[in-house]
Amino acid sequence: MFDIIIKTLRTGRVTSKYPLKPDIAPVGFRGKPELIPDKCTFCGECTRVCPPGVIWLTKEKEEETLTLSYCGCIFCGMCEEVCPSGAIRLSQEYELASKTKDDLLTIIRRTV
Amino acid sequence: MSEELIETIKKEFRSDILDEIVSNNEHYLTVNKDAAVHICDYLYHTLNFPLILIFATDERAKERTKDGCFKIHYVFSCKSDLFIIIKIKVEEKSPGFPTLTHKIPAANWYEREIQDMFGLVPVGHPDPRRLIHFEDWPAGLYPLRKDFDIRTKPPRVKGEYIYRRVEGEGVYEIPVGPVHAGVIEPGHFRFSVAGEPILNLEIRHFYTHKGVEKSFESMSLDKAVFLAERISGDNSAAHAVAFCQAVEKIAGVDIPPRAKYIRTILLELERLYNHFGDIAGIATDVAYPFGAAHANKLKEQVMQLNEKVTGSRLLRGMNAIGGVRRDIGDKKEMILKELDSLQKDFMELMELLISSPSVADRIETTGRISNEIAKGLHVVGPAGRASGIDNDIRRDHPYAAYHKLDFKVPVIKAGDVNARTNVRAYEVYESLSLIKLALSGLPGSEIRTKIKKIPDGCALGYTESPRGEIFYWVHISNGRIERCKVRDPSFCNWLAIEYAVLDNIVPDFPIINKSLSLSYSGNDM
Lengths: 112, 525
Hints:
The complex is a heterodimer of chains A (112) and B (525).
Chain A: H1 2-11, E1 33-35, H2 45-49, E2 55-60, E3 63-69, H3 78-82, E4 88-90, E5 105-111
Antiparallel strand pairs in A: 1-4, 2-3, 3-5
Chain B: H1 2-12, E1 17-23, E2 26-31, H2 36-46, E3 51-59, E4 69-78, E5 82-90, E6 96-98, H3 108-118, E7 121-123, E8 171-176, E9 188-194, E10 198-204, H4 212-216, H5 221-229, H6 236-251, H7 257-285, H8 289-310, E11 319-320, E12 323-324, H9 332-354, H10 357-363, H11 371-377, H12 381-385, H13 393-396, H14 417-440, E13 457-465, E14 468-477, E15 480-487, H15 489-500, H16 509-516, H17 520-524
Parallel strand pairs in B: 2-5, 6-7
Antiparallel strand pairs in B: 1-2, 3-4, 4-5, 8-9, 9-10, 11-12, 13-14, 14-15
């Protein structure tokens, strides 16, 4: 019994105050993929390698749209790996819960 | 050694062997359908080679010109890093094949799986009920046949599943599940009890059958790695590495040594957090929350370390065909520091856990699996090693960097919950030392080989996951997956629980279950 008390006291508190205090993920964390619109060339390379297929390109009249949905994203980082212009990268952001599916979409557009 | 062995087998069954193919450490022998039982029995009982896998393939289309048919493969693991694969042909017109279950009990579920997924009938099987399909699945629909479209939405039909019954005065049935308390997966347990002692347990699984093997088919290889990684969440690294190794074997590629070392480190990190988690679970179930809290703390420490090293708590996204995707060399100091603290804390914890009479009282002699049962069912991993089965793929069929690193394989004969806890504890120390060894010897700088084209072919990939051996048999045709058979260790170990609980009391069931550490997801697939 005495041993247990000593071990407990020596270990102390290990839990953190999250979510009251922010808990920042380490560098290199596989979090929310972010698009950098200025760099994207709409080549569609990321759409081909995405295993769950949650990145897609659409073309309507003169407008090209690249949509990324966080709904089915598995944070594998294949998009980041293949992007020739560094326009998509995994961030340290992990708080992705939302009330609607629309909030989980990132859309960038360009006119051709 | 291996050539002599093959010669002995060929001499014994010369007239029954129709064809022979050797590729890497796999020796395929196509034999007469009627001789299969005899040959398998010889390999198993006379030569003492464990049966590690049975699976079927649908090669009707491929050989339509000749003799289009199904094939059943029986895989045996031999000493001196060799696999013998006995193949038989089964015609669609006469879908029966002789059952092996009478001779080798481990064949039981495999044969029933083949029956459900391919519609081939194991003639004389002692338990011909459905295994994977439920009663509402229409007869005559076999999902792994090539002519079954993956988008098929079969109609529900009426049917009934008959459980084994134990009858007598004062015998009651206790149905448990498929919905359980807590965040675990579904499975049904039907206990027959007389008072507290359990007379019989029948398990029923496959509630979360997702058709993983069908999904693999026609998938591109790069994407398939991520599917493999998600088959059993807490064995992500082991599944991904096993799949990648199978593909690399087909491609004939030797990945850079640094990638092999990194894979070894990842696999051992996975073993660490799983074993800590299992010990925590056992402590919880014997009502020793102090031990559970401390073991869970260790598990969390490893998962946070995983996150810092790989960016994922479950070590995901690290493996790719041809090597690994991130180098971990710059994290060496951090990992070593964390390992020292883990080792110290774990030693202190185990001393307290083992010396606690309330823990010992619950786990000693509880849930015994005898060596005979373990051997018959081919119980793998720590559960097998706790019942005196001296099997470890890392040592018997070395992969990654294991042949270069020194480690011991703990084996205990008692077969109870205590033995399974102790095997895990010993393995924790071995894993800690393996990671240190691998980190100190990290060679080279290349971490990935680019593979341009993968030729057609098939190969086995395997790893020793924290639960036991994982096998992948991958067949590639035109750069796509033609067939991918996955065998998770839980597929072997689930049946052992029916024996482990006999004569134990119902309140000990959770501890026995936890000590076997079984995956629903990996089993159901």
